[in-house]
Amino acid sequence: MNAISPVTGDAALPQSLFAVPGMRCAGCIAKLETGLAAVPGVVAARVNFTAKRVRVTHRVDLTPPALVAAFAGLGFTAEPLADALAVTSDDSKALLRAVAVAGFAAMNIMLLSVSVWSGATGVTRDLFHWLSALIALPTIAYAGQPFFRSAWTALKAGRTNMDVPISIGVTLATALSLFETINGGAHAYFDSAVMLLFFLLTGRWLDAVMRDRARDGVTQLLRHTAAGALVRDADGLSGWVAAGALAPGMVMLVAVGERLAADGIVVTGRGELDCALLTGESAPVAVVPGDAVAAGTLNLSGALTVRITAAGADTGLADIARLMAEAGQSKSRYVRIADRAARLYAPAVHCLALLSFTGWMLAGAGWHASLLIAVAVLIITCPCALGLAVPAAQIVAAGALMRAGVLVKDGSALERLAEADHAVFDKTGTLTLGRPVPQRLAALDAEQQAVALALAEASRHPLSEALRRALTLAGVQPAVLTEVQETAGQGVTGDWQGVAVSLGRPDDGSAGMACALRIGAAPALVIGFDDPLRPDAVTTLAELAALGLPGEILSGDRCAAVLPLARQLGLPALAGLSPQEKLAKVRALAADGRRVLMVGDGLNDGPALAGGHVAMAPASAMDASRSAADAVWLGDSLAPVATAIRVARATQAIVRQNFIAAIAYNAIAVPLAIAGQVTPLLAALAMSGSSIIVVANALRLRGAAR
Amino acid sequence: MNGLMLLIPVALLLGLGGLAVFFWTLRAGQYDDMDGAALRILGDDDTPLEPRDAG
Fold first, then answer.
1. Which of residues 307-326 of A touch B (CB under 8 A)?
2. How much is the pLDDT for A331?
3. Entry pTM
4. What average pLDDT score do residues A317-346 get?
5. DSSP annotation string for chain B
6. Which of residues 19-38 of B touch A (CB under 8 A)?
7. Using an 8 Å Cβ cutoff, are A620 and A434 in contact?
8. CB contact B13 to A (< 8 Å)
9. Pick the CATH number of A15-81 from 3.40.50.2300, 3.30.830.10, 3.30.70.100, 3.30.565.10
């Protein structure tokens, strides 16, 4: 069953991908693979432990919810992953193939070159040069493609990037070496050209691996929110319909704990919806038949039937997505530090080579000798260390951050994090935990606590669950109740030693997030809930301010909910903002010259996240927000936000040091090259030496996140 | 010189062989799940798959 190749005869069968964060050991792999294969309808199951995913090949009639149930039967929580997210790019694999080819060629050519440098002459030298050419030419044609293509694209657009001097250097060095070989010359630079490709490709590959690894980490968290809905047709039969196939007029059944897949109007049922991720509103919203409900909200209590009014691209959710896509375009225009360096570097290098050529021509050295020197200048100045300087530092930093619980999407995110000088926070779910915690439980006596716990255990309402978590943590034993019953939207009732008890909605609706505990005829006890600050929020904000990032709160929640928190943290705050207003505020700050770090979790933060200079989101955020963010942090604490800024700045410092090292190396080597003193041996030594220094310097970032 | 005529092609062919094997392992997805590969050695599923209690 452990056939490695996923492509088998039953390729026509559907494959579903699930995130299973709970797998921990070898036993889990065996349990999942054998256990799932035993489920009727499942053809094969293959665990990817690194990505914590399971790919299941199954018959068409097995739906994702049924498979999730099968996972649950084995004791694992599984989240279906959208297929679009599962497609991994072959980018890093193609680069790895090129690295392997260049590495193989570099080693073999070096083997031959060392013999030439040690004194092989005459026929032997020519033979070795010919052999080198035989290896180098196909290698450069294959492994050089990533650079040639990128250089060509840049030139066509009238720009220049790091790949232009690389391509010209490699091509000229190869052409000249070939000419020398044909004419039985003493120096051939095949080894330099191929080694250059090898080092640069390694840098590119590291960059690609970093992006893949972070994307894997983020995809692992991405849940298949509202992938579809149970739709009831005219005959009263229900069937699962994917989100894309939902259409206005259909009636969908929304169970407790499910997210709405489309906009609609409630037909039957009462309940409460959690709109926090859509609007930032922290208190649940009660809905009754006739109310409009929006896609992306979470049904907290009571099954609803909803007549769809808008689905797919017409929902309010899709509007936000469009706004995000539009806001994200400014980010794609960001020019990375390596490319900024190349804008100065490339023309300088080409001028230098041209000047050496004309200089030696004027000095009467002849065109052959002059060209040889010009090519040596190009090879020496080829940004070998520069190509490694940035990706090596960034991948080490990203690894350190990953161990500290921060997943950074790519190198450009690290560069932008280091530049941020203003922090904007969402409130619900970002500064706060985004889940209710009961207040003043100590006001209840032991009996009341026991009854409250017993009642809370009977319901899946978030307030009940919060109450249950807090009371269980306090060591309370539940009372024994009989006739426990939950009424959707009303609460839980029961019988305790002949006394009627209930936990439900308080009579006074103005109490905010609260529930009322009633025991017999005694007056109802109102238990209030609030949404507490994330751990370390105060210290993190202080640290950010010390790092030069003053904070600010932009919330979609009511003013009354935002004000006390803003006062407690001492931050300026704006409340009641729509997604558009948040984006406008972030853009206004950017227009003032601030580089905004946007931290948010909700869909309403999505456009602002996409529009900020750089964005971070907690792992508990909505999928779309996590995709829009440049970095995602795990866990409850807010501290990783400050850690990410610190590490990003340390990375920039190392990158700058690497640049200085590369420039210093050029300052020594270039005059030698212009003077015509550089032999292929010297070029090879200089190139590998500077690359090793740069990589070793980057490794110092390993402990940066501690 | 005669030694070289034999040894150089041998060295190159061995290197190429290694390269080909690396390409094959890459295509076969052997680097897709590095952590899992380390753990699979502990599983005792050498025998063909048969339903057993999921212990």
1. none
2. 65
3. 0.74
4. 74
5. -HHHHHHHHHHHHHHHHHHHHHHHHHHTTTTS-HHHHHHHTTS---SPP------
6. 19, 22-23, 26, 28-30, 32-36
7. yes
8. no
9. 3.30.70.100
Contact of A591 with chain B, judged by CB distance below 8 Å, is answered with no
Task: Provide, as residue numbers in chain B, all residues whose Cβ is less than 8 Å from the Cβ of A74.
Answer: 54
Amino acid at A633: W
Give domain A405-434+534-646's CATH superfamily.
HAD superfamily/HAD-like (3.40.50.1000)
| Cα dihedral A271/A276/A279/A283 (nearest 10) | 60
The residues of A annotated as belonging to the active site are 426
Mean pLDDT of chain B: 77
Pairwise CA distance, residues A340 & A301, whole Å:
54
Q: E strand or H helix at A307, and its extent? A: strand A304-310
ipTM of the predicted assembly exceeds 0.90: no
> For A348, how many CA atoms within 13 A lie in the half-sphere containing its CB?
13
Contact (CB<8Å) A74/B36 = no
Residue A516: pLDDT band (50, 70, 90) is confident
Q: A-B interface: how many C-beta pairs under 8 angstroms?
A: 76
Which pair of structure tokens corresponds to residue A636? 């409850």
CATH number at A437-529: 3.40.1110.10
Contact, A326 vs A286, CB < 8 A? no
- For chain A, the structural domain boundaries read 15-81, 228-260+262-310, 405-434+534-646, 437-529
How far apart are the CA of B20 and the nearest CA of chain A, in angstroms? 10
Structure tokens at A626: 């996590």
Q: CA dihedral defined by A494, A496, A499, A505, rounded to 10 degrees?
A: -40
Band of the pLDDT at A641, cuts 50, 70, 90? very high
Q: Are strands A271-274 and A298-301 parallel, antiparallel or unpaired?
A: antiparallel
pLDDT reading at A467 higher than 90: no
Instruction: State how far Cα A610 lies from the chain centre.
Output: 13
CA A360 to chain centre: 52
Q: At what angle do helices A367-381 and A190-221 cross, to 10 degrees?
A: 30
